[in-house]
Amino acid sequence: MSTVPAEIAGIGSTSQKLRVSPGFDPLKANVEPDEYFLFSRIDGNQTLREILLATGLPIERAIAIVVKLRSLGAVMLQGETGAGSASPPAAPPPAQPARTGTPLRPAAPPAPATATPARAPVATTVDVRLTDPTAAELAALAEPAELDDGERRLLLALARLSDGKDPHALLGVPRGADAKTLKRAYFLLSKDIHPDRFYGKQLGSFAERMATVFEAVSRAYAKLTNPGKPRANTASVTPEAPQTPQAYAAELFERACALEVSGDALEGMKLFAAAVRVDPQTRYLRRAASCALAAHQPKTALEYAKKAQTQSPDDPSSARLLAQAFRAAGKLADAEEVLVMAMAMKSENDVLTSELRNDLAEVRRLLAANPS
Questions:
Q1: Is 62 buried (19+), middle (13-18) or exposed (0-12) by CB count in 10 A?
Q2: Angle, alpha carbons 104-261-248 (nearest 5°)
Q3: What angle is formed at CA 349 by the lines to CA 348 and CA 352, rounded to 5 degrees?
Q4: Which of 98, 268, 282, 331 could join 260 via S-S bond, C-beta 3.0 to 4.6 A?
Q5: CATH number for the domain including 286?
Q6: CB distance 278 to 245 below 8 Å
């Protein structure tokens, strides 16, 4: 299917404008990153058809996402005033009606980036006392770096154990720990010390330590969950693979989307940047550019948009985003050139073509009003 149908079963006309259901929390609903991406575009102003076309997702996938969001109670159809789904979410807190005035803020914004309190559970099991510290450790504790004392001590304590001799101590779990305990310890610890969590910060000597420790923790987890190497105390452990870079990037991307939707575009940019560093796929780059534009950071938006356009040179959506970034940066002539190029690209998206035409007209109006 390459075009949007006029009707979608269970949803109705694609010309209607959907709205976000007040109180719906996409994080608790465990929506996937591409589902969150589409969800974040539902603002009550665009028609469903426009949203389906603007996401850049295959139409079949985009329709399936809308149907799923509807079944979860995430969206309301045009004319509805209550929870939008025929089968409402399983456990919406009853005290949510006070939020009905802010439909674009789907409940809750503790920032997703800090929604998992990783440090406290890990720090209680990893010995961070640093008994008999070495001169290098004392110097590290005192050096200028954007880390608090607890973060420094945790990294130094883990560095002491990174030789791989005691993987249990490195993960902070007792010998004989079951698969669930191992997985949770690795999940919490890896989040706490992943280098991308500190992207853009001055880490001093801890930058190298962090990379070494994170690799050691991943190796320790793989060693304890490797079925090919049975151990007396871990015979019952179910094999689990460490979190892949792609999976971690997807998680960062989802959390960044949540921050952007909650209105914290600047914090969202940090996580988008981390996701792109790990897995610079076009979809991540485009969303990062959009977030940077929302955060009024045109230089950063332009960098992401250029990379996205390089990866998908025949995609008019990427070209339009690049033109928007040029325009935000005050480079109107460049924006005009990109839009002319985009108009020449083959596209079955009538809405996108119309938007490109309108963008080009506006850029030319600005150029005429401000000749250089």
A1: buried
A2: 145
A3: 140
A4: 268
A5: 1.25.40.10
A6: yes
Beta carbons within 10 angstroms of residue 54's beta carbon:
18
User: End-to-end alpha-carbon separation of the chain, Å?
Assistant: 46
Model pLDDT, residue 200: 63
Q: For residue 286, is pLDDT > 50?
A: yes
pLDDT at 289: 93
Tens-digit pLDDT profile for residues 241-277? 556 778 888 888 888 887 777 778 888 888 899 889 8
pLDDT in tens, 227-239: 454 444 433 334 4
Report if residue 211 sits inside a domain.
Answer: yes
- The pLDDT, as a whole number, for residue 124 is 38
| The pLDDT value given to residue 275 | 87
Q: How many domains does the chain have?
A: 3
Scanning the structure block, which residue is given the tokens 């803020």? 105
Q: List all residues 6 or more positions away from 26 whose beta carbon is below 8 Å from its beta carbon.
A: 35, 36, 39, 74, 106, 258
| 238 within some domain | no
Report in angstroms the alpha-carbon separations of 275 from 114, 244, 300, 307. Answer: 16, 12, 15, 14
Choose between 41 and 73: higher pLDDT. 73
The pair of structure tokens assigned to 157 is 């304590």
Domain range enclosing 28: 7-89
Mean pLDDT over the full length of the chain: 77
Residues 69 and 175 in one domain: no
Asked whether residue 94 is domain-assigned, the answer is no
Tell whether 335 and 364 lie within a shared domain.
yes
Check whether residue 198 and residue 266 sit in a common domain: no
* 136 lies in the same domain as 192: yes
Asked if residue 281 and residue 187 are part of one domain, the reply reads no
Residue 197, CA distances (Å) to 116, 156, 218, 229 in order: 13, 17, 16, 32
